[in-house]
């Protein structure tokens, strides 16, 4: 199967083909200069041996060497710039895949693991692009050219060189394999470190409050040590490659000197060709070491590619069918309808046959003991939990008939544990707000409804305040900001999961009023424990063990608190 990472890199290289063509031309120039230099030196020796001046030849040698060096540097710069773009393109695709896959895949993989692939493994791929596009082809080209000239100069001496390098290359294969294994283990351990550290940071206050710093440190230590141990194993294998090439070169030099000396004295080889052959032999070691090291680095990059491939193969969220296949919502249909909805995750029966209806306007409350399945009902509407059987309709159309984006555009959610993004308050509040025309008035209006206007006005940067760990928002303030965000979104179904659980009486009353006025024009579903919220519901569904066990409807012209069992 083709690696999606490699396919991405190829596509990026395709986009940078002009620069790569320039790099290839420069690399060829560099290689040609490297090949020409010893021949020019041999020519100079011939001139000197014949008692003639060799100044002109030596100046040409110097010129060719400088041109070769400049061409090599230019080629490497061009390839590096294309490589950076390839890494950036791959990183963006990894982020896109992570954001567009379903929650189950995301949670199974672990966000820390994914982070380490986006940051660490993608960085490792720079090695791959550098090596593959620059070091390796140039060295291979030079080695081929040197080899061809060496055969032309004296094939007997070349056989001596090949036999020594063949023995060395067989030993190198073992080192290359162990480098790859070490690389895979190191990247996996690094992923674990990121995963563990992220989870500790997410609960850092709990860790501190319970004095669990050293316990957490110990949990992370074994993975950190594994990163180091695999790194050392990889470095050991890699560091054996250069000396091995050095030893092969020395053995080859001794062999070439012995055999070459005999051939020069017998007149089978001229002195100038013998010197040129030796120069090529010394020059050959550089490209050979680069090739061997490049192969080692490619092994490391391959392990990174395997790990990125896993993310790039994440399935996208089921997108539903195109809107064209569905008629416009009818006014007579309820906003939401569940018929015998069942959800099973692995062996766990989360919902066991839920039937309920939510009218187009008004508030429906879900009540019940902890773990009953209330949040799961909201999650299945959002598509965070997959439906096992049963039927859900939104405005009369089955959820399968809505694309995920369209369905979510109709629905707004305030989660039980709301989160704010690390961006300005304004951006947090207008996240997904389709009606927000760029003016702040609607934002202030939403903040007023949740009793937060004064607080935000008092902040030195107002709506431009960036929400980070140092902002120090209280749990109740976070909850009210999340409610304001939901009020600003132009969705016709609004889901609230225990929206007042962290609020004092005054803020609870303000929020209840905001929800009431919202329910006058929209369908509101609220998971609630507080009587103040339940009191305002037109229908209350009592949920237990994944089922609706009772339904209470408020009577016509009822007074507050008057909820009767049908
Ligand atoms: N993705 C999931 N995988 C496995 N089990 C799940 C999943 N989501 C929910 N559950 C389980 O389903 C049950 C219902 O969970 P849910 O969060 O819906 O309860 P709840 O009624 O909202 O509880 P609470 O009032 O405490 O928030 C729980 O036992 C929970 O562990």
Secondary-structure blueprint of this entry?
Layout (H helix, E strand, L loop, with lengths): L3 H12 L1 H33 L5 H46 L2 H7 L1 H43 L1 H48 L1 H6 L3 H53 L5 H42 L23 E10 L2 E11 L3 E6 L6 H9 L6 E6 L2 E2 L5 H7 E4 L10 H5 L11 H9 L3 H6 L16 H14 L4 E5 L7 H15 L3 E5 L3 H4 L4 E6 L2 E8 L8 E2 L2
Parallel strand pairs: 3-8, 3-9, 6-7, 7-8
Antiparallel strand pairs: 1-2, 1-4, 4-5, 9-10, 10-11
Helix pairs in contact: 1-3, 2-3, 2-5, 2-9, 3-5, 5-6, 5-9, 6-8, 6-9, 8-9, 13-15
This protein binds adenosine-5'-triphosphate.
Adenosine-5'-triphosphate (ATP) binds next to strand 2 and helix 10.
Task: Give structural notes.
By secondary structure, the chain is an alpha/beta fold. It folds into 2 domains: about 5-310, Up-down Bundle (ABC transporter transmembrane region fold); about 330-565, 3-Layer(aba) Sandwich (Rossmann fold). Helix content is about 65%, strand content about 10%. It contains 17 helices and 11 strands. The chain has helices spanning about 5-15, 15-50, 55-100, 105-110, 110-155, 155-200, 205-210, 215-265, 270-310, 375-380, 405-410, 425-430, 440-450, 455-460, 475-490, 505-520, 530-535; strands at about 335-345, 350-360, 360-365, 390-395, 395-400, 410-415, 495, 525, 540-545, 545-555, 565. The strands form 2 sheets. Strands 6-7-8-3-9-10-11 form a 7-stranded mixed β-sheet, with helices on both faces. A hairpin with an 8-residue loop joins strand 10 and strand 11 (about 565). Helix 2 packs parallel to helix 5 (about 110-155). Mean pLDDT is about 85; it is low at about 555-565. Adenosine-5'-triphosphate binds near residues 371 and 374.
